[in-house]
Amino acid sequence: MKLVLQEFLSLDGVSQGPGSPDEDTSDGFTRGGWLVPHLDERFETVVSGWLAEADAFLFGRRTYENFARDWPNMPDHPNARILNGLPKYVASDTLTEADASWNPTTILSGDIPSRVAEVKARPGRELQIHGSARLGHALLAAGLIDEVRLAIAPVVVGTGRHLFPPDGPPVGLRLLHHETTPGGIAIHRYAPTGTAEYGTYGGAES
Q1: Could you tell me the pTM of the whole model?
Q2: Which of 20, 53, 111, 151 sits 20 to 30 Å CA-CA off 34?
Q3: Pick the residue with more confidence: 18 or 169?
Q4: In which order are the strands placed within the sheet that holds 126-130?
Q5: Does residue 93 belong to any structural domain of this protein?
């Protein structure tokens, strides 16, 4: 399967709590819900199209617990059938058992990159990471991510967990597609190209 990292980000790179004030209050975060004012029909169409390509999902523990809490209680949502029905994998060394209300779920522990590589090797279309910024960044650094999809809201949150921490390794990306929704969300799709490249600017003639 193709491993795809999908993230909702603020303009300053925050990925925490895009959907509501109480979505993820870990570490004292109080500024959740920053994506919601910018949602529109085009954005919903794009995200639904991404979900339609999934054959399985991969989460970190925190995102998994939030999704397992919320999605079984939203059966009428247009994306509920996909999220509730497809196989789910959770990368965690602390979670001992999956939530019985959100199956099928498999816990991956130990050497997470190796365990994820094993799942990737199985037949299927896309193994999608939603949220789970720390897991997504770690797998990007490990060279396991095949595509990065970012939806960037026109807002500076100022605090919160970032997808790309300041001490992370450099990664090169090639732009595959971009568009901006009527609500101002900038959508970018990238293919990782390995370690970032550097150069020296020599003027317009160079």
Answers
A1: 0.92
A2: 53
A3: 18
A4: 105-108, 88-91, 54-60, 126-130, 2-10, 147-153, 186-194, 172-180
A5: yes
